[in-house]
Design a protein that fits this description.
about 190 residues, Alpha-Beta Plaits, 2 domains, five-stranded antiparallel sheet, amino-acid biosynthesis, acetolactate synthase regulator activity, transferase, acetolactate synthase activity
Length: about 190
């Protein structure tokens, strides 16, 4: 399986403050799913979400155990508490799935994302883009006389904030990897 990212349009609203039409709170959860690294597994997982109308905010997948032929899918999804329970149960029933962990409820986790930003700018806008990049610890990985490509890792919120500041300075294009996450501590 290769790395893949699906990111829906972001909103400045917290997922924890949203409510569905019945008044239930909609939560954001990060799920770590250990699967067999074989053709069709990712399609089955995505099919589960699309077939039931569940939302995927972010999806990344990569092989994590070459000898054991296992890949890890990290999914950031939203839904009511009942929907999240259904998602986890249905993921667990897919045959090539070995493990499903809800990192949001199982304790602390570390989440990071990598993003590339292409910013067009000259003069004062160019200077301001470089100043902000330094504050956000973004690295310049490509530069021309009229543009930069910045690379940054951090939380999704940090990346969103940097993008918001770069837009008026000439943000042309953004590429994001999606969330990679691990639970904190030694218990998996």
């Amino acid at each position: 399986m290769s790395a893949l990212h699906i990111k829906k349009g972001s909103s400045s609203h917290s997922a924890y403050n949203l409510r569905d039409p019945n008044g239930e709170i909609i939560e954001k959860h990060t799920l770590a799913v250990l699967v067999e690294n074989e053709p069709g597994v990712l399609a089955r997982v995505i099919g589960l979400f699309s077939g039931r109308g569940y939302n995927i905010e972010s999806l990344t997948v990569a092989e994590v155990d070459h000898k054991g032929h296992r890949s890890r899918i990290t999914i950031v999804t939203t839904g009511t508490p009942n929907v999240i329970v259904q998602i986890k149960a249905q993921l667990g029933r897919i045959v090539p799935v070995h493990d499903v962990h809800d990192l949001t409820v199982e304790g602390g986790s570390v989440e990071r994302e990598l993003a590339l930003f292409k910013v067009h700018g000259t003069g004062d806008k160019r200077i301001e883009a470089l100043r902000l990049a330094e504050i956000f610890r973004a690295n310049v990985v490509d530069s021309t006389l009229e543009s930069f490509v910045f690379e940054m890792t951090g939380t999704s919120e940090k990346i969103d904030a940097f993008a918001d500041l770069m837009r008026p300075l000439g943000l042309i294009e953004t590429a994001r990897t999606g969330v990679a996450a691990l639970s904190r501590g030694t218990i998996a």
